[in-house]
Write a structure and sequence with these properties.
402 residues; alpha/beta; 10-stranded mixed beta sheet
């Protein structure tokens, strides 16, 4: 295990956390938009702003009527420490790229939430010394971007770390207290039974700290799911878990429950179509659930070929679709109506020439390009004997057909 490291002493962290409300107001005065309705933050799909061929949010807004985006992910620095970064490499303190994207969205009347955590990487709850210093790190993100919403994506491997989850839940509670009106969602893994043992332990930690976010959301994919019926069944089971954990009645539990899906082909080869999204959307709205989101807008476009050779991609869905089909379900959940014009499918691009074939014995470093199964791939970091396309979270970024 890597040792816990704090970037601030406890006293300094508490001071910064306590100053959060003032800082947020000041930042708003310098250009952040007024908050959207909570329903928009609850409907915001995930968008990676610095990786996986980020789409143009302005184009998505024009095509679908979407107003809110869930930007992912804020992590601890790859080298350790308790300061927020994008993806472990780009310090929030010196960021201009994500700020520019946020400015574009806000100039069109939209807004963003920021998600911390996600699958893989090192989380601030693991490296900060306690809840106060963890909250202070996240407060830097809230203050810099003038945020009205934040998402705690607590999953593998962090949610197996009791101390880290205690820090994350404690930080969420501090931020909620120090930033009045802040929309806070907590996202965790989904199973057929609702959520697994670690997800249940996270809920018990929230109960023990007296913390209630706007919602607890599960991700019913990558766990043996097959279409919408298996997802709505998991949501029903998760509702029972919320009732038994917090002593809520069914309606109160649904009012604090959320869904976070994956559009198209999941990492484990499950498929979720537009029709599946409509079914889950109907379930969420009919049960007055608080949140409906998905991973991700980077994937909300058609691959070439549409099935992507039976592989999962971080930049397209691996199912037949028009661009931004899945985003329109988020717009509907927010209570708006997407434009009625029929979009034209994106033309199939002319394949580029293939790079040298991938070799299992070769060593590749960031930026190296190879070809594999008629696609070109670019290495994100040092890698050897890791098959391109085997996992969305792997070392290879799909550059398209060749």
């Amino acid at each position: 295990m890597r040792p816990l490291r704090a970037c601030l002493g406890a006293a300094a962290a508490v001071t910064l956390a306590a100053a959060g409300t003032t800082a947020l107001v000041a930042n708003n005065a310098s250009g952040a938009t007024t908050a959207l309705s909570h329903r928009w933050y609850a409907a915001a799909p995930y968008l990676m702003p610095l990786d996986n061929d980020p789409p143009d949010p302005a184009a998505i807004m024009d095509a679908t009527g979407l107003k809110a985006f869930q930007l992912a992910f804020v992590l601890a620095p790859n080298g350790g420490g308790c300061s927020p970064t994008w993806g472990g490499t780009a310090p929030v303190s010196s960021d201009t790229a994500v700020q520019s994207l946020i400015n574009t969205i806000r100039a069109k009347g939209g807004d963003v939430s920021v998600s911390i955590g996600g699958y893989g990487g090192t989380k601030l709850g693991q490296t900060c010394a306690d809840a106060a210093s963890t909250a202070a790190a996240y407060q830097q993100v809230i203050t810099k971007y003038g945020l009205h919403a934040i998402d705690f994506d607590l999953e593998e491997p962090e949610y197996e770390n009791t101390a880290a989850i205690r820090n994350e839940i404690g930080a969420a509670k501090i931020l909620q207290q120090n930033n009045p009106g802040l929309y806070v969602s907590v996202t965790t893994a989904g199973t057929a039974d609702g959520t697994g043992w670690f997800g249940k332990q996270m809920l018990l930690e929230a109960k023990s700290q007296g913390f209630t976010p706007n919602n607890f959301s599960i991700m019913p994919f990558d766990g043996g799911f097959n279409g919408a019926a298996s997802q709505t069944s998991a949501l029903t089971n998760f509702n029972s878990i919320l009732q038994s954990t917090f002593g809520w009645d069914q309606a109160t539990a649904y009012a604090h429950e959320g869904f976070s899906g994956m559009n198209g082909r999941s990492d484990s080869g499950e498929y979720f179509s537009q029709a599946d999204f409509q079914t889950v959307l109907d379930y969420a709205t009919s049960h007055n659930m608080d949140r409906f989101t998905f991973w991700s807008l980077n994937r909300d476009r058609q691959c070439s070929p549409p099935d992507n050779g039976g592989r999962t991609s971080g930049t397209c869905s691996s199912v037949a679709q028009n661009d931004w089909d899945f985003a329109k379900y988020s717009v509907k959940f927010a209570g708006a109506t997407p434009p009625s014009s029929t979009p034209t499918p994106t033309p199939t691009p002319t394949p580029t020439s293939c790079k040298n074939a991938w070799s299992s014995s070769a060593v590749y470093t960031a930026g190296d390009e190879v070809s594999y199964h008629s696609h070109n791939w670019k290495a994100k970091w040092w890698t050897q004997n890791e098959v391109p396309g085997a996992s969305e979270w792997g070392p290879w970024q799909d550059e398209g057909a060749c």
